[in-house]
Design goal:
Number of helices: 10
Distance between the termini: 37 Å
Oligomer: single chain
Helix content: over 70%
Order of helices and strands: HHHHHHHHHH
Number of strands: 0
Radius of gyration: 23 Å
Structural class: mainly alpha
């Protein structure tokens, strides 16, 4: 399913949570969190919306390698006497520069997400916010898994919900775990409607659960996705209407 459809379903899920859960209030940040969480499983995909957004350092990775090369060359010039050691340092600087320039987009993306995730891990450890460190670990590891594998499992959904639970305790924002977990699960359930399905119990089972209605990328598939989003939105609207009538 396309990223735009996942986002729409995640946002609708966020709107619907307060309609069916008595102890979680309607919250615009919560709806946004559900939408964000609905995109999280596709961090394993190179062209996913969230992968590109969270790899915000992507355009700077090559420049970082170039700067490291320049700094190494300057250090060698100022601190090493002319001779073999200085020539080795110059060679290392040139190699660093060439590696950075030769990187393909996929490698740059993974490094950008690695930097983003590692920074989150370190900040979380420094600020004693375990949820932020776990979030950073997820962002770091996800791009190195194959698409629709370990991020598309019930274990990953539980892990993401646990991150929300810890964030709820630290931030004092009631409902984080519910919004995060429901948004994440909305992605898995939506992908269950595609021909590839979802292998919920990897690595215990490689069997994919699927209701093969959608052919992702086809015109018919895109129209069906739009219809599913519209129907889901209507159901949530009816739930809200029923709640107001009962109250």
């Amino acid at each position: 399913m396309r990223g735009s459809s996942h986002l729409a379903i995640g946002l609708i899920t966020g709107v619907g949570i307060a309609a069916v859960t008595s102890d979680v209030r309607f919250s615009l940040p919560g709806i946004a969190l559900a939408g964000f969480s609905s995109l999280a499983p596709d961090l394993d995909h190179p062209n996913s919306r969230l992968s590109k957004r969270m790899g915000f350092l992507q355009s700077y990775v090559r420049w970082a390698f170039a700067m490291m090369a320049v700094m190494l060359a300057i250090f060698a010039y100022l601190n090493l006497p002319p001779g073999p050691n200085q020539r080795v340092a110059y060679t290392a600087a040139l190699a660093t520069f060439l590696i950075g320039m030769a990187m393909q987009n996929q490698a740059v993306r993974k490094l950008a997400l690695l930097f983003t995730g590692a920074a989150s891990v370190l900040i979380g450890l420094y600020e004693q916010m375990l949820w932020l460190s776990l979030l950073g670990a997820f962002v770091t590891a996800a791009p190195y898994t194959s698409h629709r594998s370990y991020t598309h499992t019930i274990w990953a959904a539980a892990f993401w919900t646990y991150i929300g639970h810890l964030a709820n305790k630290d931030l004092g924002w009631h409902g984080v775990a519910v919004y995060a977990g429901a948004g994440y699960m909305s992605h898995l359930l939506a992908d269950t409607l595609t021909k590839s399905g979802v292998r919920y119990f990897l690595p215990l089972s490689d069997k994919a659960l699927k209701v093969p209605l959608i052919s992702t990328g086809s015109t018919a598939g895109n129209l069906l996705e739009l219809g599913i989003c519209a129907a889901y939105g209507l159901v949530v609207a009816l739930l809200w209407w029923q709640r107001y009538n009962l109250s």
